[in-house]
Amino acid sequence: MAPPPAALPPLLPVLPVLPALAALLAALPAAPAARAAPRSIAVVGAGLGGSAAAYFLQQHFGPQVQLDVYEAAGVGGRLATVTVNKQQYESRGASIHALSLHMQDFVKILGLKHRREVAGKSAIFSGEHFVLEETDWYLLNLFRLWWHYGISFLRLQMWVEEVMEKFMRIYKYQAHGYAFSSLEELLRSLGGEAFVNMTQRSVAESLLEVGVTQRFVDDVIAAVLRSSYGQSVLVPAFAGAMSLAGAQGSTWAVEGGNKLVCSGLLKLTKANVISARVTGISLHSSEGRALYQVHYESPEGQGSAFYDLVVVTTPLHPSRSNFTFDNFDPPIADFPAAFQPSVTSVVHGYLNSSYFGFPDPKLFPFTSILTTDTPDLFFHAMDNICPVNISAAFRRKQPQEAAVWRVLSQQPLDKPQLKTLFRSYYSVQVTERQAHPRYDAAKALPPVVLHENLFYLSGVEWVASSMEMIAVAAKNVALLAYNRWHQDLEKIDQKDLMHKVKTEL
Ligand SMILES: Cc1cc2nc3c(=O)[nH]c(=O)nc-3n(C[C@H](O)[C@H](O)[C@H](O)COP(=O)(O)OP(=O)(O)OC[C@H]3O[C@@H](n4cnc5c(N)ncnc54)[C@H](O)[C@@H]3O)c2cc1C
Ligand SMILES: *[C@@H]1O[C@H](CO)[C@@H](O)[C@H](O)[C@H]1NC(C)=O
Ligand SMILES: *[C@@H]1O[C@H](CO)[C@@H](O)[C@H](O)[C@H]1NC(C)=O
Ligand SMILES: *[C@@H]1O[C@H](CO)[C@@H](O)[C@H](O)[C@H]1NC(C)=O
Ligand SMILES: *[C@@H]1O[C@H](CO)[C@@H](O)[C@H](O)[C@H]1NC(C)=O
C-alpha cells in the first residue's frame, strides 16, 4: 500500500506555483538568431547529464544542428540496473525528490510513469541495536513524532525548507533564459553568499548553528548521509541539505527504471549516439573561431571529429576518465578532486535477522536499514529493493522469504560479512565505483566554462550529487552555450534576478 496522503510532509510554500513554472519551462525564450547556429555539437557521456544536455542543447539550437553523443559504456551511466531472476533492479540512484521539476518534466515529455510505491519501514542500526525505528514510510517525517528530537526536527525541517525554497528559484531563472558561467554565480543568485558558503562548511556545523542538537546530528543526520553519500556529517551543508530533503519528503522513481529517462531523451533528440571512449580534445581554429577535435577509441579503432561546441559530462579526474586537452592556452588540467569509493552489492538471499536482534525472521519489520557512524560497522545502509517494474499485484516478500537486498558499503563485502548479514544467499552482484565526490576534499568548485565553446557539466556534483542537480546543470550549460554563442550577455550572470524575473513576467 502507498502511504496515506496524510503522511506527506507539509508542502513547501512554492508548491502552488509549480504548474505555472512547468508551463514556463516548456515555453522557451525565443532569442534573436543573430548568428548562424553551430554546425555540430558533441556531448561526451550519455548518463543523465549527457542525455539531458543533448536534449536541452537541441531545444535551444534547433533540430538542424548535428548532435553527437559519445558513450564509453552504456547509456544511463550511473543509473544502470542489475538483473536478478529476470527482473531488473536499480543498483544505485533510486529516488527522486518530489520537487525535481526537470525530472518531472522529462517523465511527462517521454510519456513515462512514476513507479508505484511499495510501503516499508526504516530504522537506524547502531551495530548492536536499533536506535530509531520508524512507524511509517517517510523516515524523518515520522521521526518528528519522536518527542526527544522534537525541536531538533522542526529546526532541521525549517532549515531544509529554506534551502529548497531558494534553490527552486533556479527554475524561474532558467525559464526566462538566464544562465550562469560558474557554479558560484549560480549559487549566489539563488541564495547569496551564504549559499556559496554552504559548499565550504559542513552540514553538522550549519545544523548545530541553527540549534539542532549534537545527538540528533549523530543519530539521525549521520545515518541519512551515510546512506546517501556514504560519508559523514562533514559533507558540505548544501549537499547535506539536498540529501536531507530527499529523506524528509516524498520521493519517486520511474516505472521501468530511472535510466529510461536517458535513453528516452536521446531518442527524442534523435542524437547520434557513438559507442566510443573519448580520449581527448584538441583545439583548432577555423575562420577565426574555435573548432574542437574530439579524439576517441572504439573496438573498431581510433577516430576523431570536429565540432563547434562540446559539452563534457564525465568527471575530469584521472581515476574516472583519461582525457587530454591539447593546444589550449592556458592549458586545461584535471581538477584536483577525490572520489569516495562506494560499493553496491545486490544480494538475493535470506536476511540474517538474528544479527539485527530478531531471532525469529518472521518478526523482522524493516525494509530499509540505515546505520550510525560506528567504527566496526562494515556497511552504510541496506534496503530490501523492489524491481523497476511494479505491477498492481506486486507485494513485498515476507521477511522470512528470500528477497533482493541492496547493501551499500565502502569496501567490498567479504564472505564472513555476507554470512553475517545473510543466513544464505543465491547471488551477489557487486558494482564498485568511485561513486560520489569525496566532499571533505573539496576546496573550490570546478569551472563550467573550459574554453569559448567548451563546457563542463559534472562539476556540479561538487555542489550536490543528485539526478535533479545534474538536470539543472544540463539546462544551465545549454542556456550558457546558447547565450554565449549569440553573445546575449544580458542573459549571463545577471545580478538581482529575483527582481528581474518578477518585472519581466
Ligand atoms: C550509490 C549511488 C546512489 C545514488 N542515489 C541517488 C538518488 O537516490 N537520487 C538521486 O537523485 N541521485 C542519486 N545518485 C546520483 C546520481 O546517480 C548521479 O548524480 C547521476 O546519475 C549522474 O549522472 P551523470 O550523467 O552526471 O554521470 P554518469 O551517470 O556517471 O554518466 C557519465 C557517462 O559518461 C561515460 N563516460 C565516462 N568517460 C567517458 C569517456 N572518456 N568517453 C565517453 N564516455 C565516457 C560513462 O560511461 C557514463 O555513462 C546516486 C549515485 C550513486 C553512485
Ligand atoms: C561566508 O564565510 C566566510 C568565511 O568562512 C565568512 O567570513 C562570511 O561571513 C560568510 N558569509 C555569509 C554570508 O555567511
Ligand atoms: C517496464 O516498464 C516500462 C516503462 O513503463 C515498459 O516499457 C516495459 O515494457 C516494462 N517491462 C516489463 C518487463 O514489464
Ligand atoms: C587511465 O589510464 C591509466 C593508465 O593508462 C589506467 O591505469 C586507468 O585505468 C585509466 N582510467 C580509466 C578510467 O580508463
Ligand atoms: C547471524 O547472526 C548471528 C548473530 O549475530 C551470528 O551468530 C551468525 O553467525 C550469523 N550468521 C548466520 C549464517 O546465521
Automatic annotation (TrEMBL):
Its cofactor is FAD. Residues 132-494 form the Prenylcysteine lyase domain. It holds the Pfam family NAD_binding_8. Keywords: FAD, Flavoprotein, Glycoprotein, Oxidoreductase, Signal. GO terms for biological process: prenylated protein catabolic process; prenylcysteine catabolic process. The keyword Transcription regulation does not apply. It comes from the Eukaryota. Residues 1-36 form the signal peptide. SUPFAM superfamilies: FAD/NAD(P)-binding domain. InterPro entries: FAD/NAD-bd_sf (IPR036188), Prenylcys_lyase (IPR010795), Prenylcysteine_Oxase1 (IPR017046). One of its GO terms (molecular function) is prenylcysteine oxidase activity. Belongs to the prenylcysteine oxidase family. This is Prenylcysteine oxidase-like. The gene is PCYOX1L.
